Amino acid sequence: SIRLMKGNTMMYEKLKADKITALKAKDNATKQVLVGIIDQAEKNAKKAMRDVIDDDVFSSLRNLRNKLQENIHIYSERGVADKLAETKFEISVIGQYLPKEASIDDFRVKVSEIFSSKGLEKNPKVMKEIMPILREHFGASFNGNNARIAIEEYIKQ
Question: What is the arithmetic mean of pLDDT over 77-95?
Fold first, then answer.
């Protein structure tokens, strides 16, 4: 069967290689984090019925990081030091693979460009139209929260 292969797979290959390195070094903590990222990326690709591409990996990295950041708050409140340390470690491993995200200012500039070039009305319904354009433009450095904030700010101007 032919599968669509649009997009890069370098990050996916790097994660798999790093997992083997961690395995050989008996670094179980790092290996577990990498296995989780790889599994999630593979599930994302399977849902899209194609091989894993880097977009799947970056999406998995961001989702996992966001969940872990929520856990940090919970573990801090409850004083669960071992879980807090483990979660911070997992976030540090994930951080090694995430590209630098575009700043809120980068999004503000692009949102302004999109509104002018497309002659869009300033209303919340355009969010659905603008998000895919921003996602495409920023690629791996896309940050959905910054994009949403920039759009909302522009609409309120």
Answer: 94
